[in-house]
Amino acid sequence: MTTFLKLIKNPLGLIGLVLLVFFIVIGILAPVLAPPAWENEPYRIPRDGYSSVPKPPSPEHPFGTAEGQYDIYYGIVWGTRTAWTVSLIVVGISALVGIVIGSVAAFYGGVLDEVLMRITDIFYAFPFLVGAMVLTTILGRGLTNVMVALVVLGWMGYARLIRGDILQIREADYVQAARAAGANSLRLILRHILPNAIWPVVVQGTMSMGSIVITAAALSFLGVGAPLGYADWGQLISYARNWILGLYGNPLAYWYVVIYPSIAITLFCLSWNLVGDALRDILDPRLRGSR
Amino acid sequence: MLAYIIRRLLMLPVVVLGCIILVFAVMQLLSPYERLSIYCSNPAELKNIDFDVLIERYGLNDPIYSQFADWFWNVMHGELGWSQSAARPVMGAFMRFMPVSAELALWSALPIILGGIWLGSLSAVKHNKPIDHITRIFAITGWSLPTFVAGLLGLFLFYGILGWFPPGQLGLGASAIVRSSQFVNYTGIITLDAVLNWNWYVFGDALRHLVLPVFTLAYVSWALLLRVTRASMLETLRQDYVTTARAKGLEEKVVIKKHARRNALIPTITIAGVTVAFLFNGLVITETIFDFHGLGRWAARAAQTFDLPALLGYLLFNGVLIVFANLIVDVMYAYIDPRVRLE
After folding, report:
1. What residues contact residue B117 under an 8 Å CB cut-off, 6+ apart?
2. How far is B46 from chain A (nearest CA, A)?
3. Mutate to test the interface with B, among A244, A255, A275, A290 (most CBs of B within 10 A)
4. B170 and B310: one domain?
5. Which domain range does residue B13 map to?
6. How many Å apart are CA B131 and CA B259, to the nearest integer?
7. Pairs of residues, one from chain A and one from chain B, whose beta carbons lie less than 8 Å apart
8. First to last CA, chain B
9. Cβ of A126 and B315 within 8 Å?
10. Predicted TM-score (pTM) of this structure
């Protein structure tokens, strides 16, 4: 609880939290804010015709329409849900996988530790976006496959972190005391070691919520992520690519196709990064006392 | 020191082998028919022939260990199949696209490293002062801005509205000069070739086209370096030897530059490998947006057109290069920090 209070007192952290609440509200209220055109397929962006030239904001389409007459406002509102789904599922599962692998490596040590850590090294050798791009291409287009690819390439950071923390905490006096008191391995890990080693993982998870959304959107931008017409911020920005130059004499003619989706994705990542940054400053004992 | 380097070098083949196994494992997700394209180095081979004959010839229905042996043999000989999207063998495509990416990467490396370190240590020295907050906001917005958004906004502002920095690698005039017979292509890296040819018009034009992609790459990469440098500099500034240096009456400038910053740079070096990986991710996006015909754009196009040999080849290339980058980092680390050597 004190952590939460400190987070609220930190101005940048507070801004981040407020923005996150804003995005949660938009995600929850999506069906009210933008009623779906098809009951069973709320993530399909409604189209108003098939012309490729974007149309400026109007009462019907508050943010205008993108290339192919996709409604930008609808895409942004439902894209918020997509962003939440992707980031929560990917960060949750990769953190879980990483925690299990890292704890096993740290606790059993020896050959098992060496093997698991070398496997981690090998997975680390592939750039995140490039690896995810190759994997999604092979698995096939679609949001589920994007999430699978991001988990496969995203667990290693958590494994390394938790392993390092456990190795340090294992030698701490209170753990030795619990061991001497007769606690078994499982109790030691779950009750004494993990609760103390978990904080850096929480910070890491917070910081990667934003980058997961960025990578997923980048895949859609490149045309290997979400299917065509799916409510996804990256997809909306990819529709903007051909229209950033505007018209002769009026360079700002199509500003809305670039600006609205860019603001949505940047604010979402910014809010997570602000919260993560503030959390790390609060939880990092080395920086305590300097303020 | 030597023992340490040898130990690291011995781990290298293991990790590289791991990368090859992993790429092979990804290949197993495909049917033998799809995998066929990764083994054929010549599209003519695929015409007017029964695919089952080819699958038999390349042993794609053999037990997995013998398939792996074949694939390993191919990789070792640089035979990675035919890239449909580049219309040439994968190795040939590498050679062709490499200089373009290398040019972008080399030009970005300098501002990323120097800028990141300078801003990071400035932020730490002025801890909690306005300049610290500005730098941190600058870094955190860069970290939150997706590369493709940064690139598009850059084009929107500096090309669409102001008309200063056009996309593409060269303008029409300069590109005609580069293709003409008077211009000798020594390396394929245009800025370098222009200097070697003593052609300053081409050099200037190439530079003008590099500004936006380089700035995009740098802006999204600065955050990481800046953060690590700042954190480590803050810690170093609180060390006893820095206090001692100040107590001796040394100038603050000398204390910061000679005593604090040099030691604070050690953690910064360890993330150099991560920065290289970052650059590869960034290249895919920036080259696509700014229309640079390099490795990254080739990989993106390969993904769009289901050009598997190109994708797997690129993945393998990235993996091996990053493993080497990490090795260099580790060796440098041991050279700079005596504590690592003594372990």
Report:
1. B225, B229, B265, B268
2. 21
3. A244
4. no
5. 1-84+305-343
6. 22
7. 151
8. 10
9. yes
10. 0.85
